[in-house]
Every structure is written in structure tokens, then in C-alpha cells.
Amino acid sequence: MRQLPLSKAYQLLEPGPVVLLTTARKGRANVMTMSWHMMVEFEPPQVACVVSNANHSFAALRATGKCVIAIPARRLAAKVVKVGNSSGRDIDKFAAFGLTKMPAARVAPPLITECFANLECKVTDTRFVNKYNLFILQVLKAWIDPAQRNPRTIHHRGYGTFIVDGATIKLKSRMR
Amino acid sequence: MRQLPLSKAYQLLEPGPVVLLTTARKGRANVMTMSWHMMVEFEPPQVACVVSNANHSFAALRATGKCVIAIPARRLAAKVVKVGNSSGRDIDKFAAFGLTKMPAARVAPPLITECFANLECKVTDTRFVNKYNLFILQVLKAWIDPAQRNPRTIHHRGYGTFIVDGATIKLKSRMR
Known about the structure:
- The structure is a homodimer.
- In chain A, 17% of the residues lie in helices and 40% in strands.
- Chain A has helices at 10-13, 56-64, 77-84, 93-97, 129-132, and strands spanning 2-4, 19-25, 28-34, 37-41, 46-50, 66-71, 101-102, 111-112, 117-125, 134-144, 154-156, 161-170.
- In chain A, strands 1, 2, 3, 4, 5, 6, 9 and 10 form an eight-stranded antiparallel sheet that branches. In chain A, strands 7-8 form a two-stranded antiparallel sheet. A two-stranded antiparallel ribbon of chain A has the order 11-12.
- In chain A, β4 (37-41) and β5 form a beta hairpin.
- At the A-B interface, β4, β5, α3, β11 and β12 of A face β4, β5, α3, β11 and β12 of B.
- β12 of chain A pairs antiparallel with β12 (161-170) of chain B.
């Protein structure tokens, strides 16, 4: 994994990929699948995300205030669905689905080796957690796997239907 | 435009497409380009979005509490960039870029005829506006253009780079 400048972190999340979210509590790591997230600020990068209180990860995220957003490419799609269809209450999803934990630099939750990008995050605002399960995160450190070139991310359309990234187009724009 | 059940609105936004946001104030409509949005609740569908206070649309959205999220397909990409690179302070973007306003049913801001989906929204929570420019919206009515089949949306990766929807894959999943 190579460090990515924090100023570029938004370019990973703004397109709306399905991501994995890792947490850790009492020495035990967990991972869930997440599609409800958005950028809130460029620098330092801040992200809003919704983690349902029905998810086992919710309590760990709220208690520890730390997580990793790991971004999987197309080839991990089947594992991403399995992660989403099971609960850390019942199984160790890393072991069950062959996802490799790698220590993060600034937070206890692990990076995921198979993901092409990993964002270490801390919770910075919990005022919307009770009403919306909405957490505000700050990205502390960003990693990218240079061995995965032009990774195609997946985007969820409901009930197991995903769109895979297609062509890239470049248009003259002044927007960041 | 045909009505879409509100229960399916999330399937349009969850994949993270670039969208257009229309507002109206004092009889004048405006439109901006937006990529920072996410689902917050399935039913009634609630959406969080960030509209920078540097955008001309910000004041109209805050003052009126109404907007339309219009979703463009690939063929509108050049117009979407032009909308993003100009301000309603200076020009009528609908006229300048050939976007057709169509009356909405429940809100004053217009639908956009050329977009394959339009979501009429009202602001339901402004408590995060001052700190994050973050609005919570509820979708009141959803429209889809049945004439646009399998529209490919675009996803922003920064500085005029967009990813176009590629292949659709279906995996066995229990996730909604």
C-alpha cells in the first residue's frame, strides 16, 4: 500500500462506490458493506455515512469512533455481497470470506489488503447518530495499492444488482 | 414522465451519480451540478446532500426548503459540466444550455425534461447547514422517463474526469 495525499481522497468516494467498513472493538475486528456515504469537505477530507443501528458494526463505531473505509474493485464483488449478507455477531467475516487484515497506521480497525484503497477515519461528529444513524468522519490517512491499476468499482442499485465502472470520459471543467 | 414508487427512489441515488439540483426563488429557477449526496432512509426516502454556501443555489434552497434532484444520463454530460462551471448569479442556465423546465407536482422548482429521473424534494432538517452545508431532504414525488431505456449515469472523479456506467451484474443478495 502506498500513501495517497489526503487532498485526493475525495476522488475515491465521490463516484459513489460500494465500500467495506472495518471496525474493531475489544480486540475483535469486523467488516460490513456500505453504500450510503458522501463527501462533506475536501480538506481535511470529511465524509458522512449511514451505519444502521441494526448492523453489528454500529455499536463498535459509536463506542470507538474509529473505522477504515476500504474500497473493493469488481473482482471482490461476490465477497462484498457475502459480507453484506452476514453479521459479525455470528462469524468472523475476514476468515469466512478470505479478506486479509493489515494493520492501519492511526486507527485500530484494520485495512483490507485485497482492496485497492483504504481510508483510515475517526468519527468527528455524532450529533446525527441518534436520529439518522449518520456519522461524520474525518479521513486521517489514505492508502492506495499501486499494483491494482485502473480498478473498476461497483455501485449498488438494490437487491444484488450492481453497476460496474465503464468508460472514463474527460471534459473541460473548472470544478475540483 | 411516469411516476416511480417512492420505495424505489433509493435505487436511483445509491449508485452515486452526478445529479442536477433545481431551485426556484422569487419566480426564477436555477440549476446546479451536485455529487455530494447519499441516501439516509428508504421510506419515506430521505437524502442528505451538501450544497456549498458558495453556490448561488444555497440561498434559494435554504430560504424555500424545496428542490428537485434531476438525474442526467451520459448524453447530457457536456451540459452537466457547463452547469457546474457557471453561476445562476450571471446567467439563466436553462436557456443558456438548452435544458427544458417542466412544472413539478408538489414543489416550485422545475423538473428537467432531458433528465431520465426527477425527484421532488423538501428540506426536512437544517441543523447541519451552518456547519457542513448539509441538508436533509425528503423525496415527495419521483418521476422517471420511460422513453430513456437503460440510461447510463456519470460519476465524478474530480477535475472533469467522469466514469460512465458500465456492465450490470446481478449477485444473489438479501440486501435491499
